[in-house]
Design a protein that fits this description.
single chain, 21 helices, 31% helix, binds S-adenosylmethionine
Length: 523
């Protein structure tokens, strides 16, 4: 494919739905009782959904199909010559400059919004210098740090789906569109949190590799509008039927849980974090900051052999190491600070060879794009604190789906540092780390994580999720409360949080009344 064509395909998220899949979706919707009089395909492309719908829905009277590309519009016009007597309007139209609310308000009958919006993220568009975007891109109030660190990255289909649901507000209709499953969840979360008038939402998984030649988790998202459903939950089905339910996810508070039923069985484990989970160290310059070792010589990412003082060098484990249980570090990392505010200039005195090395590679380090390095000492790293240098840690990879916690100890008498794709809690002793790890790897904790986490997400396990596991309750359920008492009392001392004051002295403040209810004991 020519370069310009490839760029256009990416820019417009152009993955045309094969007719076979469009037909299967239409038959499924029709058999599920959807009988629209108006069909809208907002980004119709070659129009296989339009063609399938004009044939498959006997009730349809009007079809509106739009696309930003003129050649698709003319191709569909030609293909629609014989449209079974249905009135079809096919026009070139940019989704983002169209007044969807005004458009939908003109209709009385049941509307079906059908299709497959573009599969492209705003970050990819940014890289291409494309403006195929809504005017205001930080649309979910993801301001500040989240926006700066890329959490504000989203599929433009997410924006489109939300816009459609918002515009249909209160009107009886159905949105049935193909998208990534992660997009579908974010759209539903947005609708539920913002109390859109939506109900009965389901997700039906499709094989994106087979139909589109891409390896992503994709689905048909179906949302009914104008029929509020008081329960913000959605069933996930393994195919285009209602026969095989995989799970039901839903909103709890402002966040989604992956399996509402399992979560409800284990909800008492959703409690207090005795430890604060942290990310590993971020430096954004692996070629300069990471090394292999040959005797006493360090070899950086571009093969340069250097002699450095040991002062700022630490053994390093990465996500792949943690996920695969490879706990003997083979790499090293230069950590220039112990806390984010440390003045790095002191390195010139304490470790001159290291300082000289940093100066020699300043071009790479000074070019680091992320805003987190701005206005901070030169050669700063990110994600450092006392926890980074704790002698023992429990760690998990944020990238892998196996959900395996590992105890990480010292290596060659130095604390092991984890990279920023790992999460960790700091521990003072091997026993404490082993105990916390035992609890975290228990079937109980795993079930709880499975209830919370969406394993098809890019980073399924997040700090927010980890911080919800109440290790004391896990210990209680496993009959290990006395060990928990022993080890966790000081857990938060690392953070200077006065031991969190969470381990009430058993028997001193509380006891069980004869009725079994917990009551305060007179002292
Ligand atoms: C994933 S393809 C799907 C096409 C069609 N819906 C289907 O199911 O085969 C996305 C389509 O969105 C169109 N598109 C991209 N950006 C658009 C925009 N801003 N406004 C309207 N259409 C757009 C592309 O040209 C492309 O045809």
């Amino acid at each position: 494919m020519k370069m310009a064509k490839v760029k256009s395909k990416i820019e417009y998220g152009d993955f045309q739905t094969p007719r076979e899949l469009a037909d299967a979706v239409v038959i499924f919707l029709r058999d599920a009782g959807i009988s629209p009089s108006v069909i809208v395909e907002p980004t119709c492309g070659l129009g296989n959904f339009v063609l399938a719908a004009t044939e498959g829905f006997p009730t349809v009277r009007q079809v509106f199909a739009y696309d930003i590309k003129a050649d698709y519009v003319s191709a569909l016009r030609k293909a629609l010559r014989d449209a079974n007597g249905v009135h079809c309007q096919v026009a070139q139209q940019d989704f983002f400059s169209f007044n969807w609310k005004e458009f939908f308000t003109a209709f009385r009958g049941e509307i079906l919004v059908l299709g497959n919006p573009p599969w492209v993220t705003n970050a990819a568009l940014g890289a291409l210098g494309s403006d195929n975007l809504p005017k205001k891109t930080n649309f979910q109030n993801r301001a500040g740090f989240a926006a700066k660190t890329g959490k504000a990255n989203f599929d433009i289909s997410e924006w489109m789906l939300i816009k459609l649901l918002e515009s249909l507000d209160g009107q009886r209709g159905c949105v049935a569109m193909l998208c990534k499953t992660a997009t579908a969840r974010r759209v539903l979360r947005h609708g539920w949190v913002n109390r859109f008038n939506i109900g009965r939402a389901t997700i039906h998984l499709i094989d994106a590799a087979a139909y589109f030649g891409v390896s992503v988790d994709a689905c048909l998202l179906i949302v009914h509008t104008g029929v509020p459903d008081l329960s913000p939950t959605a069933g996930v089905y393994s195919d285009l039927t209602f026969n095989h339910k995989v799970t039901t996810f839903g909103l709890l508070g402002r966040e989604l849980v992956a399996d509402v039923d399992e979560y409800n069985r284990l909800r008492d484990l959703d409690g207090l974090a005795y430890y604060t989970w942290r990310s590993g160290v971020k430096h954004d310059a692996a070629s300069v900051m990471e090394f292999k070792k040959d005797g006493s010589t360090f070899i950086n990412g571009v093969g340069e052999r250097v002699e450095l003082e040991p002062t700022y060098i630490y053994p390093l484990l990465k996500s792949s190491d943690i996920a695969n249980g490879r706990l003997t570090p083979q790499r090293y990392v230069l950590v220039t600070q112990r806390t984010p505010g440390d003045d790095t200039k002191t390195i010139s005195r304490t470790a001159p060879k290291t300082w000289y090395y940093l100066l020699r590679h300043a071009d790479v380090l000074d070019r680091r794009q992320s805003i987190i390095y701005q206005k901070r000492p030169r050669f700063s790293v990110f994600g450092v604190g006392d926890y980074t240098f704790s002698p023992w840690k429990v760690a998990i990879s944020g990238l892998y789906k196996n959900c395996r916690f590992e105890v990480v100890g010292k290596h060659q008498n130095k604390p092991v540092v984890l990279d920023d794709t790992c999460y960790l809690i700091p521990c003072s002793s091997e026993q404490e780390a082993s105990f916390a790890c035992l609890l975290l790897n228990s079937d109980l904790a795993k079930k709880f994580l499975h209830a919370l986490v969406f394993y098809d997400a890019k980073r399924p396990v997040t700090i927010d999720v980890l911080n919800r596991i109440d290790l004391k309750r896990v210990a209680e359920r496993l009959g290990l409360e006395s060990d928990a008492r022993k080890y966790f009392r000081d857990a938060a001392l690392f953070e200077g949080r006065q031991g969190l004051l969470v381990f009430e002295e058993q028997g001193k403040y509380r006891t069980k009344s004869s009725s079994g209810r917990r009551v305060p004991r007179r002292r």
